[in-house]
Design a protein that fits this description.
The protein is α/β, with parallel strands linked by helices. The protein contains 10 helices and 15 strands. The chain has 2 domains: about 170 residues, Rossmann fold (3-Layer(aba) Sandwich), CATH 3.40.50; about 130 residues, Rossmann fold. The strands form 3 sheets. Strands 3-4-2-1-7-8-9-10 form an 8-stranded mixed beta sheet, sandwiched between helices. Strands 13-12-11-14-15 form a 5-stranded parallel beta sheet, sandwiched between helices. The longest helix has 15 residues. It is globular, with a radius of gyration of 21 Å.
């Protein structure tokens, strides 16, 4: 689909995307920000991304189609999030807003410290702000209570908020006390030209189950530890391909050693997004074991590659799946 060169208002914007989660880190939020930026660039808008430094990657970098990325010299201290400073990032954000002539600041992910601070600074500078929530959070545990209070404070003056599913919208409205008319649902999408099936690459003598996910508790990695040995024992022609990295990877490797499944479970480690399609087309079934999920774009990518999908029924997953 060819995108129009201008907006319906006949003007171009200068958009600042802000999140702690961006390339070279891998994940759904990172991909979403990158591809959304590319689409806005195609429409003639100027797009700039601000994230924290990743190792030695600091300063200004340029990506495809001139996408400008500021890797500010803040290092993550917990789950890729920077240490909260409230006003410590204000001089840098202010300088970027003025230098780039930003008209809209778009923050991503409720758990991103940098996102919250940038939204506050942008409103201080008089900029329009938009927020996109990509995940579901609870209400009872200490971490969620704290984060929900921060979210209410940060979103008190946003123009609009976006959620990736109706379940996510309900969750965000309850957590942030935003009026529901300010929150819009825009589901994630997949460029199907990048995820075309190739049945010739699937083995005919095996059933290949593919798992591509961050290997963390929230993504149900502990469920995989219990499920994979049971499935392999019951179905001798099943072969697992597990792509992804995280703190739970050790448990999966221990499980593979304990049950002598080295020839039945292939561990790939971290998988760049450019390689995802080449892995998916090898499989027959895509398995998602998430304990909480706002949408799960990986299911769309797998379905686009022709895989059947099996998933836990959580969050916004039923909105992305058609149950027979």
């Amino acid at each position: 689909m060819e995108l129009p060169a201008q907006t319906t208002m006949g003007r171009h914007h200068r958009v600042l995307m802000v999140s702690d989660f961006f390339y070279p880190n891998f994940g759904g939020v990172e991909n979403h920000i990158y591809y959304l930026s590319q689409c806005l660039l195609q429409r003639g808008h100027k797009v700039v991304v601000v994230t924290h430094a990743y190792g030695t990657r600091s300063g200004v970098r340029y990506m495809t189609n001139g996408l400008k990325v500021y890797y500010i010299p803040w290092l993550p201290f917990f789950m890729q999030n920077t240490l909260p400073t409230f006003y410590g990032t204000f001089p840098l954000i202010r300088n970027i807003l003025i230098r780039e002539g930003i008209t809209i600041v778009h923050g991503h992910q409720a758990f991103s410290t940098l996102c919250h601070e940038a939204l506050l600074h942008a409103r201080t500078m008089g900029n329009k702000v938009v927020f996109t929530d990509h995940s579901l959070y609870g209400f009872a545990d200490l971490g969620s209570i704290h984060m929900n209070k921060v979210l209410q404070f940060t979103l008190a003056d946003v123009q609009q908020a976006i959620c990736v599913s109706h379940t996510s919208k309900e969750n965000t409205v309850l957590r942030s006390n935003l009026p529901s008319q300010k929150v819009f649902v825009i589901p994630n999408a997949v460029d199907t030209a990048m995820f075309k099936p190739d049945p010739s690459l699937r083995p005919s003598d095996q059933v290949v189950i593919v798992v591509i996910s961050r290997l963390v508790y929230r993504k149900g990695a502990d469920l995989l530890v219990e499920v994979i040995p049971a499935v392999c024992k019951r179905f001798p022609n099943v072969y697992f391909i597990v792509g992804g990295d995280g703190p739970k990877r050790v448990r999966l490797e221990e499980m593979r050693e304990k049950h002598s499944l080295q020839d039945r479970v292939e561990m790939l480690g971290a998988v760049p997004h450019a390689r995802v399609r080449s892995i998916l087309v090898r499989g027959h079934i895509f398995l998602n074991s998430s304990l909480t999920e706002a949408f799960c774009i990986a299911i769309l990518e797998a379905a686009s590659c022709g895989l059947l999908t099996v998933s836990t029924r959580v969050g916004g997953v039923p909105e992305a799946c058609v149950t027979p």
